[in-house]
TrEMBL record, chain A:
UniProt-listed PANTHER family: ATP-DEPENDENT PROTEASE SUBUNIT HSLV, METALLOPROTEASE TLDD
Organism expressing this protein natively: Micromonospora avicenniae
Entries under Pfam families matching the protein: Proteasome
GO terms for cellular component: cytoplasm; proteasome core complex, beta-subunit complex
Propeptide segments, given as residue ranges: 1-40
Subunit comment: The 20S proteasome core is composed of 14 alpha and 14 beta subunits that assemble into four stacked heptameric rings, resulting in a barrel-shaped structure. The two inner rings, each composed of seven catalytic beta subunits, are sandwiched by two outer rings, each composed of seven alpha subunits. The catalytic chamber with the active sites is on the inside of the barrel. Has a gated structure, the ends of the cylinder being occluded by the N-termini of the alpha-subunits. Is capped by the proteasome-associated ATPase, ARC.
Main subcellular location of this protein, as a coarse class: cytoplasm
GO biological process: modification-dependent protein catabolic process; proteasomal protein catabolic process
Keyword line: Autocatalytic cleavage, Cytoplasm, Hydrolase, Protease, Proteasome, Threonine protease, Zymogen
Entry's Gene Ontology molecular function annotations: threonine-type endopeptidase activity
Protein name: Proteasome subunit beta
Pathway the protein takes part in: Protein degradation; proteasomal Pup-dependent pathway
TrEMBL record, chain B:
NCBIfam families xref list: 20S_bact_alpha
Listed name of the protein: Proteasome subunit alpha
A Pfam family this chain is assigned to: Proteasome
Superkingdom of source: Bacteria
Originating organism: Micromonospora avicenniae
Family statement drawn from the similarity comment of this UniProt entry: Belongs to the peptidase T1A family.
Biological process (GO), any one: proteasomal protein catabolic process
Gene Ontology CC: one annotated term: proteasome core complex, alpha-subunit complex
Residue segments, region Disordered: 232-273
Subcellular location, principal: cytoplasm
Assembly description: The 20S proteasome core is composed of 14 alpha and 14 beta subunits that assemble into four stacked heptameric rings, resulting in a barrel-shaped structure. The two inner rings, each composed of seven catalytic beta subunits, are sandwiched by two outer rings, each composed of seven alpha subunits. The catalytic chamber with the active sites is on the inside of the barrel. Has a gated structure, the ends of the cylinder being occluded by the N-termini of the alpha-subunits. Is capped by the proteasome-associated ATPase, ARC.
Length: 266, 273
Protein backbone atom coordinates (compact mmCIF):
# COMPACT_ATOMS: atom_id res chain seq x y z
CA UNK A 1 0.00 0.00 0.00
CA UNK A 2 2.96 2.32 0.51
CA UNK A 3 4.76 1.56 -2.72
CA UNK A 4 2.14 2.53 -5.31
CA UNK A 5 3.41 5.37 -7.46
CA UNK A 6 0.39 7.29 -6.19
CA UNK A 7 0.16 10.85 -5.05
CA UNK A 8 2.24 13.48 -3.30
CA UNK A 9 -0.70 14.37 -1.06
CA UNK A 10 -0.79 12.77 2.35
CA UNK A 11 -4.56 13.16 2.72
CA UNK A 12 -5.11 11.50 -0.65
CA UNK A 13 -2.89 8.65 0.53
CA UNK A 14 -4.81 8.41 3.82
CA UNK A 15 -8.15 8.32 2.02
CA UNK A 16 -6.99 5.10 0.36
CA UNK A 17 -5.24 3.29 3.20
CA UNK A 18 -6.75 4.69 6.41
CA UNK A 19 -9.87 6.75 5.63
CA UNK A 20 -10.94 6.56 9.28
CA UNK A 21 -8.05 8.91 10.11
CA UNK A 22 -9.58 11.75 8.08
CA UNK A 23 -11.88 13.97 10.16
CA UNK A 24 -14.60 14.25 7.52
CA UNK A 25 -14.96 10.52 6.90
CA UNK A 26 -16.63 9.44 10.12
CA UNK A 27 -20.34 8.65 10.07
CA UNK A 28 -22.15 10.79 12.63
CA UNK A 29 -25.56 10.07 14.13
CA UNK A 30 -28.19 12.64 13.15
CA UNK A 31 -28.90 15.63 15.34
CA UNK A 32 -27.08 18.71 16.58
CA UNK A 33 -23.89 18.17 18.55
CA UNK A 34 -22.71 21.73 18.96
CA UNK A 35 -22.43 21.80 22.76
CA UNK A 36 -20.78 18.44 23.34
CA UNK A 37 -17.15 19.49 22.77
CA UNK A 38 -14.99 22.49 23.65
CA UNK A 39 -14.91 25.42 21.26
CA UNK A 40 -11.83 27.41 20.42
CA UNK A 41 -12.38 31.11 19.98
CA UNK A 42 -10.70 34.23 18.63
CA UNK A 43 -7.72 34.43 16.24
CA UNK A 44 -6.43 37.60 14.54
CA UNK A 45 -3.95 37.97 11.70
CA UNK A 46 -2.34 41.20 10.49
CA UNK A 47 -0.08 41.64 7.48
CA UNK A 48 2.90 43.88 8.12
CA UNK A 49 5.95 45.08 6.23
CA UNK A 50 7.98 41.99 5.41
CA UNK A 51 5.69 39.42 6.95
CA UNK A 52 2.55 38.57 8.81
CA UNK A 53 1.53 38.29 12.47
CA UNK A 54 -1.02 35.88 13.92
CA UNK A 55 -2.24 35.83 17.49
CA UNK A 56 -4.85 33.84 19.37
CA UNK A 57 -6.36 33.99 22.83
CA UNK A 58 -6.05 30.98 25.14
CA UNK A 59 -9.64 30.14 26.04
CA UNK A 60 -11.75 27.16 25.02
CA UNK A 61 -15.41 27.14 26.05
CA UNK A 62 -18.15 24.55 26.36
CA UNK A 63 -21.50 26.29 26.53
CA UNK A 64 -21.22 28.69 29.47
CA UNK A 65 -18.18 26.92 30.93
CA UNK A 66 -14.51 27.60 30.37
CA UNK A 67 -13.21 24.24 29.16
CA UNK A 68 -9.55 25.20 29.05
CA UNK A 69 -7.66 28.36 30.01
CA UNK A 70 -4.40 27.76 28.18
CA UNK A 71 -5.26 26.08 24.88
CA UNK A 72 -2.90 26.94 22.01
CA UNK A 73 -4.73 27.70 18.79
CA UNK A 74 -2.02 29.30 16.66
CA UNK A 75 0.56 26.94 15.20
CA UNK A 76 3.16 26.96 12.44
CA UNK A 77 1.83 25.09 9.40
CA UNK A 78 5.33 24.81 7.94
CA UNK A 79 8.51 26.86 7.84
CA UNK A 80 6.81 29.93 6.32
CA UNK A 81 3.14 29.76 7.21
CA UNK A 82 0.84 29.85 10.23
CA UNK A 83 -2.55 28.39 10.93
CA UNK A 84 -5.03 29.33 13.64
CA UNK A 85 -8.12 27.30 14.54
CA UNK A 86 -11.57 28.40 15.70
CA UNK A 87 -14.55 26.13 16.22
CA UNK A 88 -14.70 22.60 17.61
CA UNK A 89 -11.34 22.24 19.33
CA UNK A 90 -10.78 18.49 18.97
CA UNK A 91 -11.50 18.38 15.25
CA UNK A 92 -9.59 21.63 14.77
CA UNK A 93 -6.43 20.27 16.37
CA UNK A 94 -6.71 17.04 14.39
CA UNK A 95 -7.16 19.02 11.18
CA UNK A 96 -4.24 21.28 11.99
CA UNK A 97 -1.90 18.30 12.65
CA UNK A 98 -3.06 16.70 9.44
CA UNK A 99 -2.40 19.92 7.54
CA UNK A 100 1.12 20.14 9.00
CA UNK A 101 1.87 16.59 7.90
CA UNK A 102 0.31 17.29 4.50
CA UNK A 103 2.70 20.19 3.86
CA UNK A 104 5.77 18.39 5.22
CA UNK A 105 4.88 15.25 3.27
CA UNK A 106 4.59 17.11 -0.03
CA UNK A 107 7.88 18.84 0.66
CA UNK A 108 9.68 15.55 1.32
CA UNK A 109 8.14 13.64 -1.58
CA UNK A 110 8.59 16.40 -4.17
CA UNK A 111 11.72 18.03 -2.78
CA UNK A 112 10.07 21.47 -2.95
CA UNK A 113 7.52 23.41 -0.95
CA UNK A 114 3.97 24.06 -2.11
CA UNK A 115 3.23 27.65 -3.12
CA UNK A 116 1.35 29.72 -0.54
CA UNK A 117 -1.79 29.59 -2.71
CA UNK A 118 -1.35 25.84 -3.04
CA UNK A 119 -1.25 25.49 0.73
CA UNK A 120 -4.39 27.61 1.12
CA UNK A 121 -6.23 25.50 -1.48
CA UNK A 122 -5.21 22.28 0.28
CA UNK A 123 -6.53 23.64 3.57
CA UNK A 124 -9.78 24.70 1.87
CA UNK A 125 -10.40 21.21 0.55
CA UNK A 126 -9.69 19.72 3.98
CA UNK A 127 -12.28 22.07 5.53
CA UNK A 128 -14.76 21.13 2.81
CA UNK A 129 -14.29 17.49 3.78
CA UNK A 130 -15.65 18.34 7.24
CA UNK A 131 -18.86 19.91 5.86
CA UNK A 132 -21.15 17.12 7.10
CA UNK A 133 -19.93 17.48 10.67
CA UNK A 134 -20.05 21.29 10.36
CA UNK A 135 -23.77 21.10 9.51
CA UNK A 136 -24.31 19.22 12.77
CA UNK A 137 -22.59 21.91 14.78
CA UNK A 138 -19.01 20.57 14.77
CA UNK A 139 -17.63 23.25 12.47
CA UNK A 140 -13.97 24.16 12.24
CA UNK A 141 -12.84 27.42 10.64
CA UNK A 142 -9.13 28.07 10.26
CA UNK A 143 -7.27 31.27 9.52
CA UNK A 144 -4.19 30.81 7.36
CA UNK A 145 -1.37 33.30 6.87
CA UNK A 146 2.12 33.07 5.54
CA UNK A 147 5.14 34.64 3.96
CA UNK A 148 4.91 34.23 0.19
CA UNK A 149 8.37 33.34 -1.11
CA UNK A 150 7.23 34.05 -4.67
CA UNK A 151 6.00 37.59 -3.94
CA UNK A 152 7.44 40.23 -6.26
CA UNK A 153 7.43 42.89 -3.55
CA UNK A 154 8.83 41.63 -0.23
CA UNK A 155 6.87 44.32 1.61
CA UNK A 156 3.65 42.66 0.44
CA UNK A 157 4.78 39.07 0.99
CA UNK A 158 2.66 38.60 4.12
CA UNK A 159 -0.69 37.19 2.98
CA UNK A 160 -3.81 36.13 4.86
CA UNK A 161 -6.50 33.64 3.80
CA UNK A 162 -9.83 33.03 5.47
CA UNK A 163 -12.28 30.15 4.95
CA UNK A 164 -15.88 29.23 5.59
CA UNK A 165 -17.38 25.84 6.41
CA UNK A 166 -17.78 25.08 2.69
CA UNK A 167 -14.13 25.77 1.99
CA UNK A 168 -12.77 28.93 0.45
CA UNK A 169 -10.14 30.28 0.44
CA UNK A 170 -10.73 34.03 0.44
CA UNK A 171 -7.68 36.23 0.46
CA UNK A 172 -7.95 39.09 2.92
CA UNK A 173 -6.36 42.50 2.57
CA UNK A 174 -4.52 43.85 5.58
CA UNK A 175 -6.07 41.97 8.48
CA UNK A 176 -8.69 39.41 9.43
CA UNK A 177 -10.10 37.69 12.50
CA UNK A 178 -12.11 34.53 13.10
CA UNK A 179 -14.02 33.05 16.00
CA UNK A 180 -16.64 34.31 18.43
CA UNK A 181 -14.79 37.52 19.28
CA UNK A 182 -13.83 38.29 15.69
CA UNK A 183 -16.52 40.97 15.34
CA UNK A 184 -14.96 43.09 18.06
CA UNK A 185 -11.38 42.31 17.08
CA UNK A 186 -12.07 43.33 13.49
CA UNK A 187 -13.79 46.53 14.57
CA UNK A 188 -10.71 47.42 16.60
CA UNK A 189 -8.40 46.59 13.71
CA UNK A 190 -10.52 48.53 11.25
CA UNK A 191 -9.81 51.75 13.15
CA UNK A 192 -6.18 51.11 13.98
CA UNK A 193 -4.70 49.14 11.09
CA UNK A 194 -2.41 51.02 8.70
CA UNK A 195 -0.71 49.50 5.66
CA UNK A 196 3.03 49.01 6.07
CA UNK A 197 3.05 48.52 9.85
CA UNK A 198 6.29 47.16 11.28
CA UNK A 199 6.18 43.63 12.66
CA UNK A 200 6.57 44.92 16.23
CA UNK A 201 3.68 47.35 15.84
CA UNK A 202 1.55 44.64 14.28
CA UNK A 203 2.26 42.36 17.24
CA UNK A 204 1.09 45.08 19.67
CA UNK A 205 -1.97 45.75 17.54
CA UNK A 206 -2.87 42.05 17.51
CA UNK A 207 -2.71 41.85 21.31
CA UNK A 208 -4.81 45.03 21.58
CA UNK A 209 -7.41 43.56 19.22
CA UNK A 210 -7.58 40.37 21.28
CA UNK A 211 -8.08 42.49 24.40
CA UNK A 212 -10.98 44.26 22.69
CA UNK A 213 -12.47 40.90 21.71
CA UNK A 214 -12.16 39.61 25.28
CA UNK A 215 -13.68 42.85 26.56
CA UNK A 216 -16.98 42.22 24.79
CA UNK A 217 -17.08 38.47 24.14
CA UNK A 218 -17.35 36.07 27.07
CA UNK A 219 -15.87 33.19 25.07
CA UNK A 220 -12.59 35.04 24.44
CA UNK A 221 -10.03 35.12 27.21
CA UNK A 222 -8.05 38.28 27.92
CA UNK A 223 -4.46 38.29 29.21
CA UNK A 224 -4.55 36.34 32.50
CA UNK A 225 -2.09 38.24 34.70
CA UNK A 226 -2.71 36.16 37.82
CA UNK A 227 -1.99 32.81 36.12
CA UNK A 228 0.52 34.27 33.65
CA UNK A 229 -1.40 33.05 30.61
CA UNK A 230 -0.90 35.35 27.66
CA UNK A 231 -1.95 35.18 23.99
CA UNK A 232 0.08 33.04 21.59
CA UNK A 233 1.72 35.37 19.07
CA UNK A 234 3.57 34.09 16.01
CA UNK A 235 5.17 35.77 13.01
CA UNK A 236 6.06 34.52 9.54
CA UNK A 237 8.78 36.46 7.73
CA UNK A 238 11.58 35.78 5.25
CA UNK A 239 13.46 34.17 8.15
CA UNK A 240 10.68 31.66 8.74
CA UNK A 241 8.07 31.28 11.42
CA UNK A 242 8.77 32.43 14.94
CA UNK A 243 6.82 32.26 18.16
CA UNK A 244 7.30 35.09 20.61
CA UNK A 245 8.55 33.84 23.95
CA UNK A 246 6.29 33.92 26.99
CA UNK A 247 8.39 36.76 28.42
CA UNK A 248 7.91 38.87 25.28
CA UNK A 249 4.16 38.34 25.09
CA UNK A 250 3.91 38.95 28.85
CA UNK A 251 5.60 42.34 28.44
CA UNK A 252 3.31 43.33 25.56
CA UNK A 253 0.15 42.10 27.28
CA UNK A 254 1.02 43.86 30.54
CA UNK A 255 1.63 47.11 28.63
CA UNK A 256 -1.76 46.75 26.94
CA UNK A 257 -3.52 46.04 30.25
CA UNK A 258 -1.86 49.00 32.00
CA UNK A 259 -2.83 51.25 29.06
CA UNK A 260 -6.43 50.13 29.53
CA UNK A 261 -6.29 51.01 33.22
CA UNK A 262 -6.20 54.66 32.16
CA UNK A 263 -8.42 54.37 29.10
CA UNK A 264 -10.63 51.24 29.13
CA UNK A 265 -11.65 51.75 25.51
CA UNK A 266 -8.06 51.71 24.26
CA UNK B 1 5.60 -32.91 -26.91
CA UNK B 2 7.10 -29.64 -25.75
CA UNK B 3 9.78 -29.96 -23.09
CA UNK B 4 9.54 -27.78 -19.97
CA UNK B 5 12.87 -26.21 -19.16
CA UNK B 6 13.89 -26.87 -15.60
CA UNK B 7 15.93 -24.41 -13.59
CA UNK B 8 16.77 -25.20 -9.99
CA UNK B 9 15.84 -22.63 -7.32
CA UNK B 10 19.54 -22.17 -6.56
CA UNK B 11 20.18 -21.31 -10.18
CA UNK B 12 17.28 -18.83 -10.31
CA UNK B 13 18.46 -17.04 -7.14
CA UNK B 14 22.05 -16.95 -8.40
CA UNK B 15 20.93 -15.42 -11.68
CA UNK B 16 18.86 -12.78 -9.91
CA UNK B 17 21.70 -11.94 -7.54
CA UNK B 18 24.10 -11.59 -10.42
CA UNK B 19 21.72 -9.29 -12.28
CA UNK B 20 21.25 -7.09 -9.21
CA UNK B 21 24.96 -6.97 -8.37
CA UNK B 22 25.90 -6.02 -11.90
CA UNK B 23 23.28 -3.29 -12.00
CA UNK B 24 24.44 -1.82 -8.69
CA UNK B 25 28.13 -2.00 -9.62
CA UNK B 26 27.55 0.09 -12.77
CA UNK B 27 26.40 3.11 -10.77
CA UNK B 28 28.36 5.68 -8.84
CA UNK B 29 28.90 5.09 -5.16
CA UNK B 30 27.67 6.67 -1.94
CA UNK B 31 29.17 6.87 1.53
CA UNK B 32 27.42 7.26 4.88
CA UNK B 33 29.33 7.86 8.10
CA UNK B 34 28.74 9.25 11.53
CA UNK B 35 30.79 12.17 12.79
CA UNK B 36 30.87 14.27 15.92
CA UNK B 37 27.92 16.48 14.90
CA UNK B 38 25.67 13.93 13.22
CA UNK B 39 25.48 11.56 10.27
CA UNK B 40 27.01 12.55 6.94
CA UNK B 41 25.81 11.36 3.52
CA UNK B 42 28.04 11.87 0.48
CA UNK B 43 27.03 10.53 -2.93
CA UNK B 44 28.55 11.00 -6.32
CA UNK B 45 25.70 12.41 -8.33
CA UNK B 46 25.84 14.47 -11.50
CA UNK B 47 22.24 15.60 -11.15
CA UNK B 48 21.28 18.29 -8.69
CA UNK B 49 17.58 17.53 -9.04
CA UNK B 50 17.39 13.73 -8.88
CA UNK B 51 18.54 12.92 -5.40
CA UNK B 52 20.27 9.82 -4.08
CA UNK B 53 20.15 11.16 -0.54
CA UNK B 54 16.95 12.36 1.09
CA UNK B 55 15.04 12.99 4.24
CA UNK B 56 12.59 10.42 5.57
CA UNK B 57 11.69 11.83 8.96
CA UNK B 58 12.93 13.99 11.83
CA UNK B 59 16.05 11.98 12.61
CA UNK B 60 16.05 9.52 9.73
CA UNK B 61 17.80 9.86 6.38
CA UNK B 62 17.95 7.69 3.30
CA UNK B 63 20.73 7.07 0.78
CA UNK B 64 20.62 4.72 -2.18
CA UNK B 65 22.56 3.59 -5.21
CA UNK B 66 21.37 1.66 -8.25
CA UNK B 67 18.34 2.22 -10.43
CA UNK B 68 16.70 5.58 -9.71
CA UNK B 69 13.08 4.57 -10.36
CA UNK B 70 13.38 1.59 -8.04
CA UNK B 71 14.93 3.31 -5.04
CA UNK B 72 12.73 6.39 -5.53
CA UNK B 73 9.74 4.09 -5.19
CA UNK B 74 11.13 2.75 -1.92
CA UNK B 75 11.93 6.26 -0.66
CA UNK B 76 8.36 7.44 -1.23
CA UNK B 77 7.07 4.34 0.54
CA UNK B 78 9.36 5.15 3.46
CA UNK B 79 8.16 8.76 3.70
CA UNK B 80 4.53 7.62 3.61
CA UNK B 81 5.05 5.00 6.28
CA UNK B 82 6.97 7.40 8.53
CA UNK B 83 4.40 10.18 8.18
CA UNK B 84 1.50 7.79 8.81
CA UNK B 85 3.10 6.37 11.94
CA UNK B 86 4.15 9.81 13.16
CA UNK B 87 0.59 11.09 12.82
CA UNK B 88 -1.04 8.03 14.41
CA UNK B 89 1.36 7.79 17.34
CA UNK B 90 3.94 10.48 17.97
CA UNK B 91 6.91 11.88 16.09
CA UNK B 92 9.30 10.14 18.48
CA UNK B 93 7.77 6.75 17.69
CA UNK B 94 9.10 6.73 14.11
CA UNK B 95 12.35 4.75 14.18
CA UNK B 96 14.99 3.81 11.67
CA UNK B 97 14.84 0.19 12.73
CA UNK B 98 11.14 -0.11 11.89
CA UNK B 99 11.75 1.49 8.50
CA UNK B 100 14.72 -0.77 7.78
CA UNK B 101 12.55 -3.78 8.62
CA UNK B 102 9.79 -2.60 6.29
CA UNK B 103 12.26 -2.02 3.46
CA UNK B 104 13.77 -5.45 4.08
CA UNK B 105 10.35 -7.11 3.80
CA UNK B 106 9.59 -5.26 0.58
CA UNK B 107 12.96 -5.98 -1.02
CA UNK B 108 12.88 -9.62 0.10
CA UNK B 109 9.42 -10.16 -1.35
CA UNK B 110 10.41 -8.55 -4.65
CA UNK B 111 13.57 -10.64 -4.84
CA UNK B 112 11.78 -13.97 -4.41
CA UNK B 113 8.47 -13.26 -6.12
CA UNK B 114 9.20 -11.02 -9.07
CA UNK B 115 11.08 -12.09 -12.13
CA UNK B 116 13.52 -9.19 -11.78
CA UNK B 117 14.91 -8.06 -8.41
CA UNK B 118 15.41 -4.37 -7.54
CA UNK B 119 18.93 -3.32 -8.55
CA UNK B 120 19.40 -1.12 -5.50
CA UNK B 121 21.34 -0.88 -2.29
CA UNK B 122 19.99 1.31 0.46
CA UNK B 123 21.13 2.89 3.68
CA UNK B 124 18.64 3.93 6.36
CA UNK B 125 20.39 6.10 8.94
CA UNK B 126 19.05 7.38 12.23
CA UNK B 127 21.01 10.00 14.12
CA UNK B 128 21.34 9.57 17.88
CA UNK B 129 22.31 12.01 20.62
CA UNK B 130 25.94 10.76 20.48
CA UNK B 131 27.92 9.03 17.69
CA UNK B 132 27.49 5.75 19.59
CA UNK B 133 23.74 6.15 19.31
CA UNK B 134 23.76 6.49 15.50
CA UNK B 135 22.20 3.60 13.61
CA UNK B 136 23.19 2.78 10.03
CA UNK B 137 21.32 -0.04 8.30
CA UNK B 138 22.48 -1.45 4.99
CA UNK B 139 19.74 -3.08 2.92
CA UNK B 140 20.64 -5.08 -0.14
CA UNK B 141 18.62 -6.18 -3.18
CA UNK B 142 17.64 -9.54 -1.60
CA UNK B 143 16.19 -7.99 1.56
CA UNK B 144 19.07 -8.71 3.91
CA UNK B 145 19.74 -6.09 6.61
CA UNK B 146 23.07 -5.28 8.21
CA UNK B 147 23.71 -2.96 11.10
CA UNK B 148 26.88 -1.08 10.11
CA UNK B 149 29.41 0.25 12.64
CA UNK B 150 29.34 4.00 12.06
CA UNK B 151 30.35 3.98 8.38
CA UNK B 152 29.41 2.30 5.14
CA UNK B 153 29.91 2.49 1.39
CA UNK B 154 27.52 1.33 -1.33
CA UNK B 155 27.70 0.95 -5.10
CA UNK B 156 30.45 -0.01 -7.50
CA UNK B 157 33.79 -0.97 -5.90
CA UNK B 158 32.33 -0.56 -2.43
CA UNK B 159 35.00 -2.82 -0.90
CA UNK B 160 37.84 -0.53 -1.93
CA UNK B 161 35.97 2.53 -0.68
CA UNK B 162 35.18 0.78 2.60
CA UNK B 163 38.90 0.04 2.97
CA UNK B 164 39.75 3.75 2.88
CA UNK B 165 36.90 4.58 5.26
CA UNK B 166 38.01 1.90 7.69
CA UNK B 167 41.54 3.23 7.92
CA UNK B 168 40.68 6.93 8.10
CA UNK B 169 37.26 7.32 9.71
CA UNK B 170 36.79 8.14 13.38
CA UNK B 171 33.45 8.88 14.96
CA UNK B 172 34.74 12.04 16.69
CA UNK B 173 35.64 13.81 13.43
CA UNK B 174 34.40 17.31 12.66
CA UNK B 175 32.14 17.88 9.67
CA UNK B 176 35.02 19.24 7.57
CA UNK B 177 37.21 16.22 8.29
CA UNK B 178 34.36 13.81 7.67
CA UNK B 179 33.54 15.35 4.29
CA UNK B 180 37.20 15.15 3.29
CA UNK B 181 37.49 11.49 4.28
CA UNK B 182 34.25 10.65 2.45
CA UNK B 183 35.34 12.42 -0.74
CA UNK B 184 38.79 10.86 -0.56
CA UNK B 185 37.23 7.41 -0.18
CA UNK B 186 34.89 7.96 -3.13
CA UNK B 187 37.78 9.29 -5.23
CA UNK B 188 40.06 6.39 -4.33
CA UNK B 189 38.50 4.25 -7.08
CA UNK B 190 37.68 4.80 -10.72
CA UNK B 191 40.69 6.94 -11.70
CA UNK B 192 42.97 6.26 -14.69
CA UNK B 193 44.80 3.00 -14.10
CA UNK B 194 43.50 2.66 -10.55
CA UNK B 195 44.80 6.08 -9.48
CA UNK B 196 42.85 8.40 -7.20
CA UNK B 197 40.57 11.05 -8.71
CA UNK B 198 39.48 14.43 -7.48
CA UNK B 199 35.72 14.94 -7.47
CA UNK B 200 34.39 18.46 -8.01
CA UNK B 201 31.76 19.96 -5.70
CA UNK B 202 29.15 19.97 -8.46
CA UNK B 203 29.43 16.20 -8.80
CA UNK B 204 28.70 15.58 -5.15
CA UNK B 205 25.49 15.37 -3.24
CA UNK B 206 26.12 16.09 0.43
CA UNK B 207 23.64 16.11 3.30
CA UNK B 208 23.71 15.68 7.07
CA UNK B 209 21.45 14.66 9.90
CA UNK B 210 22.52 17.24 12.46
CA UNK B 211 22.34 15.68 15.93
CA UNK B 212 22.23 19.07 17.69
CA UNK B 213 18.96 20.05 16.06
CA UNK B 214 15.58 19.25 17.49
CA UNK B 215 12.80 18.39 15.08
CA UNK B 216 13.74 17.88 11.45
CA UNK B 217 17.49 17.35 11.47
CA UNK B 218 18.11 16.71 7.77
CA UNK B 219 19.69 19.40 5.63
CA UNK B 220 21.55 19.51 2.39
CA UNK B 221 24.90 21.21 2.02
CA UNK B 222 25.24 22.77 -1.41
CA UNK B 223 26.93 25.68 -3.14
CA UNK B 224 29.36 27.90 -1.26
CA UNK B 225 29.27 26.08 2.12
CA UNK B 226 30.09 22.79 0.38
CA UNK B 227 32.96 24.29 -1.61
CA UNK B 228 34.33 25.80 1.60
CA UNK B 229 34.21 22.41 3.33
CA UNK B 230 35.95 20.69 0.42
CA UNK B 231 38.66 23.33 0.28
CA UNK B 232 39.46 22.74 3.91
CA UNK B 233 37.66 25.80 5.22
CA UNK B 234 36.98 25.62 8.91
CA UNK B 235 34.09 23.37 9.76
CA UNK B 236 31.75 26.30 9.73
CA UNK B 237 28.17 25.56 10.55
CA UNK B 238 26.27 26.23 7.34
CA UNK B 239 22.98 28.08 7.51
CA UNK B 240 22.46 29.12 11.03
CA UNK B 241 24.27 26.53 13.04
CA UNK B 242 22.81 24.42 15.77
CA UNK B 243 19.62 25.12 17.70
CA UNK B 244 18.06 27.35 15.05
CA UNK B 245 15.82 25.01 13.10
CA UNK B 246 13.33 27.73 12.26
CA UNK B 247 15.86 29.35 9.96
CA UNK B 248 15.72 27.94 6.45
CA UNK B 249 18.90 26.80 4.74
CA UNK B 250 20.63 28.50 1.84
CA UNK B 251 18.20 26.78 -0.47
CA UNK B 252 15.56 29.34 0.33
CA UNK B 253 12.82 27.52 -1.50
CA UNK B 254 13.46 24.18 0.11
CA UNK B 255 13.56 24.71 3.85
CA UNK B 256 14.29 21.68 5.91
CA UNK B 257 12.27 22.55 8.94
CA UNK B 258 8.62 22.48 9.61
CA UNK B 259 5.80 23.07 11.73
CA UNK B 260 5.52 20.24 14.06
CA UNK B 261 9.22 20.23 14.65
CA UNK B 262 9.27 23.91 15.52
CA UNK B 263 6.62 23.19 18.13
CA UNK B 264 8.75 20.42 19.49
CA UNK B 265 11.83 22.59 19.54
CA UNK B 266 10.21 25.31 21.58
CA UNK B 267 8.87 22.90 24.13
CA UNK B 268 12.16 21.13 24.71
CA UNK B 269 14.28 24.25 24.81
CA UNK B 270 11.98 25.69 27.45
CA UNK B 271 12.37 22.53 29.48
CA UNK B 272 16.11 22.97 29.47
CA UNK B 273 16.08 26.52 30.71
Amino acid sequence: MFTNAGTSSFTAFLSKVAPEMLPGRRPLPPGMAADMAPHATTIVAISAAGGVVMAGDRRATMGNLIAQRDIEKVHPADAYSLVGIAGTAGIGIELMRLFQVELEHYEKIEGAMLSLDGKANRLASMIRGNLGAAMQGLAVIPLFAGFDLAAADPAKAGRIFSFDVTGGPYEETGYDAIGSGSLFAKSALKKRFRAGLSIDDAVKLAVEALYDAADDDTATGGPDLTRRIYPVVMTATAEGTHRLTDAETAAIAEAVVSGRMENPGG
Amino acid sequence: MAMQFYASPEQIMRDRSELARKGIARGRSAVVLSYEGGVLFVAENLSSALHKVSEIYDRIGFAAVGRYNEFENLRRAGVRMADLNGLSYDRRDVTGRALANAFAQTLGAIFTEQSKPFEVEICVAEVGSTPDGDELYRLTYDGSVNDEPGRMAMGGQAEAITGVLKSEHRSDMSLGEAVKVAVKALGSVGGEGGAARTIAANQLEVAVLDRRRIGRTFRRITGAPLTALLNGGAAEEPAGGPQTPAVPTGEAHKPTTSAASADLERRESEDES
